[in-house]
Predict the structure.
Amino acid sequence: MADSILTHSSDNIQGLLNNKSLDVDLEPEILSLRPESLKDYIGQKEVVEALIIAIEAANLRKEPLDHILFHGPPGLGKTTLAHIIANEMNGHLTITSGPALDKGGELIGMLTHLEEGDILFIDEIHRIPKTVEEFLYPAMEDFAVDFVFDKGVHARSHRYRLNQFTMVGATTRVGLLSAPLRDRFGVFRSLDFYSIDDLIKITKRSAVLLEVAIDDQSALELSRRSRGTPRIVNRLLKRVRDYTMVRSDGKITLDVVDAALALEGVDKRGLTNLDRNYLKTIIDFYHGGPVGIETIAATLQEETDTLVDVVEPYLLKIGFVIRTSSGRKVSKAAYQHLKLPFQPELF
Ligand code: ADE
């Protein structure tokens, strides 16, 4: 019976909050390098401008903010922006993800506990099961959940009203989102890789927060080797800080960056072992391509999703990989970077 869905979700909501969604206030350490307001946000100028306008207009009209969908590779700020939106709207933030919402009851539990103006952030929203996704349509459009009791000729439905909330969805693969779900977002924004200048500003801001001295050359080098991604620049900065505390004098210099990043397996272009293995697999086993992604994944014994979501976007961006209708090809620039002979007759 469908009312067991509601009972189940209500009983378990605290458990859900503890397990499958993140209570933001309990995680200050993880969030410490994140900007908390749009005015402190570095980069993504057009996205920030669009958000400032949408938030200000919603506040002027005293209406909830439209639902917002962010698209882009991991680490570019989708979750950070959800935190900022909740701060700027003075709402509570509930965080969950598509794969965590494997039952409709869990989503209903979250929706029914949202207060007016709260933000529900669903990461990897493209991975939400279809049956659960259908609860989202009336929730987003009419702020309601429809329960169906019994089946067949005895079927009855009951509409439960929700408080007006804002959904923020994030996806690395907007193409996998169904049209009905995509169309229910009033704001859709793609996040792109950050410029070196923006990454330098982020590095220097984070170094201040982490209380470590870094010179200009080192900030530039770290930024060049961070794949256009704030999450990576912040992670590498922490590793470099560890290195200088233990092996040097606590200050970050170019030598320290070089030594610490060599330990991390991060090369001059910011490529990791996985990036290099991906390129070498195409070169060694498939003469540089074209080869299908499933074949590369099988040879590398990696998940296809990891290659498509994490590895390929930056390699495509810097032109080391080319996507063609018959598969992936490695470019001449990638051969040169790997110091391998380029054989155009096989290309
Ligand atoms: N830390 C991580 N991303 C950031 C950004 N875009 N601006 C400022 N600090 C950040």
